[in-house]
Amino acid sequence: MNLSSFFPYRNDARKVLIPYLQLLSEDQWYAVHRDHPNSIAWIIEHIARSEDEWIHVIGLQGELTLPSNLDTPEQLLQAYIDIRHRTDRVLDSLKFSESDPALPLPTYSDGWQPPSPPTMRWIFHHIYDHETYHIGQIGLIARLNGFGGPLF
After folding, report:
1. From CA 49, how far away is CA 103, in angstroms rounded?
2. What is the pLDDT of residue 134?
3. Residue pLDDT tens, the chain, 152 long
4. Residue 57 burial by CB count (10 A; 0-12/13-18/19+): exposed, middle or buried?
5. Cβ-count burial of 138 within 10 angstroms (0-12 exposed, 13-18 middle, 19+ buried)?
6. How many beta carbons lie within 10 A of that of residue 67, not counting itself?
7. Are the CB atoms for 121 and 96 separated by under 8 Å?
8. Of 43, 76, 66, 56, whose CA–CA distance to 123 is shortest?
9. Number of Cβ atoms within 10 Å of the Cβ of 40
10. CA angle 52-110-81, nearest 5°?
11. Sign of CA pseudo-dihedral 113, 77, 70, 4
12. Could you write out the three-class secondary structure of the chain?
């Protein structure tokens, strides 16, 4: 069984979020509020770079694939789209196995450790959960800064 069959709705939030992001002004992308430390731009870059790290460096033990500089909303959005295309290709290439080994993880400065053995399947669950968490923050950031959030 292909591993992608475990995640059939993985891109549903993006079907709402990407059109929303395309309509934001540059000011909206970079707006910050005293009650939240990050901008929408920071969130999108964080999601994309985290996915790149988890899939390509930790999971595949390779190199990062995103450009080191993402300086505009257009570049950020394109990186967000591109990394998921790459992730989907990896996911589509993998077969499910109950005996997948746990992968070695770096040591995190805050002491975080995964709650389950970090197999490739767990890594995919983790990046989709991580993205969903941060997408929720985008709505909060928008509303704190006086404009509407994505309609989920």
Report:
1. 19
2. 97
3. 899 999 999 999 999 999 999 999 999 999 999 999 999 999 999 999 999 999 999 999 999 999 999 999 999 999 999 999 999 999 999 999 888 999 999 999 999 999 999 999 999 999 999 999 999 999 999 999 999 999 98
4. middle
5. buried
6. 11
7. yes
8. 56
9. 25
10. 20
11. positive
12. CEHHHHCCCCCHHHHHHHHHHHHCCHHHHHCCECCECCCHHHHHHHHHHHHHHHHHHHHCCCCCCCCCCCCCHHHHHHHHHHHHHHHHHHHHHCECCCCCCCCCCCCCCCCCCCCCCCCHHHHHHHHHHHHHHHHHHHHHHHHHCCCCCCCC
pLDDT at 131: 98
Q: Which two tokens stand for residue 75?
A: 């570049």
CA distance 80 to 85: 9
Q: Is 122 exposed, middle or buried (0-12, 13-18, 19+ CB in 10 A)?
A: middle
Are 54 and 127 spatial neighbours (Cβ–Cβ below 8 Å)?
Answer: yes
> Which residue type sits at 123?
I
Residue 146 neighbours by CB distance under 10 Å: 9
Token look-up 């941060």 returns 134
